[in-house]
Fold each of these.
Amino acid sequence: MLMYFALALLVAVIGLVGFWYVQTRNVEIARYEVLQADGAIELRAYPPLLVAEVTRTGTRDQAVRAGFGPLARYIFAQERGGEKIAMTAPVTQTAEGGSWTVRFIMPSGYSLDRLPKPSGADVKLTELPAARRAAIRFSGWWSDPLFTEKNAELLAWMAKHGLSPVGEPTFAYYNDPFTPGFLRRNEILYDIQ
């Protein structure tokens, strides 16, 4: 009996991982070209990206949670008319002064004039210019100690390669909150001079 229970549990886990894999593969990821790779660190070239963004105050964790709701309501057409917009990855967050800008990257098929207009002044649509960015990729739960450790690794790599960051780091989150830590994809990115 115990063997049947263990087998059923194994089948359920494999099914859940398979479902997660299929779901995450159906989400468009922001395009970039890898210019240089060194383990988990890459130097990338990004084209211009259309984004919907909101600004929030508080800690990193508080701000990303507070920013997610209005952006989700915008793309799912809950506070405006028109079509829904597909979810993409990653959701990004960058410190600016005493606040945080949280962004959803818009699917590649849109132009700024083709995106539905937000219903209020909270959500803003903008185009980020093309940029070179250094990025470090890692898994795990979103936590300040983990981000501090990975940020130090990325900055050390950049210094070793003579790359100067422009501005504050951008935190990138690729998965929903229900994805187990070992399956998560997180990144820290810096624009490069």
Amino acid sequence: MKKYLAEFIGTFTLVLFGCGTAVVAGKIVGILGIAFAFGFALIAMAYGIGPISGCHLNPAVSLGVFTAGRMDGKDLVGYIVGQILGALAAAGVLTAIKSGILAGYSASGSGLGQNGWGEGYLGGYGLTSAIVFEFVATLLFLIVILGSTQEGAPTQMAGLAIGITLVVIHIFGINITGVSVNPARSLGPAVWVGGRALLQVWMFLVVPSLAGIVGGVLYRSGVLAAFPSGSGSK
């Protein structure tokens, strides 16, 4: 349970400070500020809870680690449940904070940093662009995560490398989908916002998850692993 609680806390932190920056300070800090908020939150949690759970904070990452042979099915379920609950709780806290605006606030009207695509959403990119971006970005993210944490890698620097990668992904992709690469991060705000966000969340659940599985297969097959025989290494 300690590992699952760590994933809850870590995902809560990522969503609260990442989406919170977009909602509360997005107009002030812009895309770069939002990107760094997500990346720095991940780096902080990597060193805060990494020794406990590995700091996945993301069902796509857990699916990739499971597929690569680095965790069992019981932990996979526990991690994903913890991550989803953490994201839902963070979106709820963010809603409570925003509701304190004296002029009034509506999550369904003003949003919670939810992901999306199409006309009227940020850059106005279509579904095809959204799918391609989310798949490729999540796959590359998993390659960095699995590569930097495999046997023989300088794992003390893994949290920094992973966080910086998340920053770059956000700088590139915020105008396309708001950047998910994380089903829990997408589901939390979508449940509280409802409407279009909830109708579109399916893509952010399916595509990053598939990319995570593909990344895990690449490592388990030895295509990208430094030591193919050590697929079970930490």
Amino acid sequence: MITASQLIVKRAFDLILSLVLLPLLLIPILVLIAIAAIDTKQRGLFSQIRVGQHGKLFKIFKIRTLKNKFHRLGHLEKSATKLGQFIRNSKLDELPQIFNVIVGHMSFVGPRPDIIGFADELEGDDRIILIIKPGITGPATLKYKDEEKMLALQDDPETYNRTIIWADKVKINKNYMENWSFYLDLKYIIQSIIS
């Protein structure tokens, strides 16, 4: 199980790496925000409430990829633009999360931060996942990098997500917590870059 001293090492690594990367990523992030604003005709930076460490809520930052579409029946639907789909598939929409890492809401590696209704409802031993900060990447994120495509093939995507994918993610993230090492975090970061 990850210890208090290991959590300090993990946070120190996150802070150092994010401050090193920030000068390299700042201009690309600003360019992507501007492009997304033109493409979606909305603010290019998107934020959403997610469940963080110890179940505390925080705002996650992403590049906006969805555009509002109004149908003749009057209801609103959000769908990814062609450019937005490319940004999502290439994971460039995740770049602003470096600011989440700097302020301490997130880590480079950990369980993905979920919307309300998942991690905040964990019970018993499963709640150990909430000891660490959620991550930009991690073992479950890598395994389910094509999650949207998997869900699109299901007759009942929501039930499949809750009963199959989410249950598996909990197991994967518990295993990550129980076997944490600095080397493991480096491995997942490298795998995320090359995959």
Amino acid sequence: MPFEDLGFACIDHHRQIRRGFPEVIFCPGKTTEQIIKIFETLAAKGNNVLATRAEPDVFEALAKTNKFPKVRYEKMAKAIVFEQKELIASKTVLPIVTAGTADLPVASEAKVTAEIMGQRTELICDVGVAGLHRLLKHLPKLQSANVIIVVAGMEGALASVVGGLVSCPVIAVPTSIGYGSSFEGLSALLTMINSCSAGVTVVNIDNGFSAAVTATLINKKIEG
């Protein structure tokens, strides 16, 4: 079976195993039957399995096979999670910060992804620039983090604000939340890319998965 059909995210199989990464399936573009077949193949290797952007009917079909009693569906993240290999939890907490409640689906994808890779996470929600005072009470925990994920739509300014307040890398995730002139996340993406906060790095629109992988790699390197 070709590499891409197995649904791996950008990293080869052996490196995933060494670092405790899960096997990953990107569900859009695949039939339910294909997803189940790939899931079975990956689960047989003994590693944890994550299926992203999965619709509820895909999970229901997978659950009906009765082959994965521990499998669960994270509705907000639209992720299927199968944990069969226990990982050592990270020493530090990975904060995942959202500008608004509407950004939660993307933040939840980041949270689920980071956690299945052994990261301890904390969601800090609804602290965008329209209510910036809410961010300040979380400042001590943000300043003690090794890396932070910031998820924001509209104009995407929150990533720059957080980046200017902390001395660690900020992984910014633009979301497709906003009015017409946000151009489905393009406005937030451009704002984040043009951030004057030097520690801000940007992933693709709505790509909570990639942000979590990047943040995990940084945290694992720091913690050794």
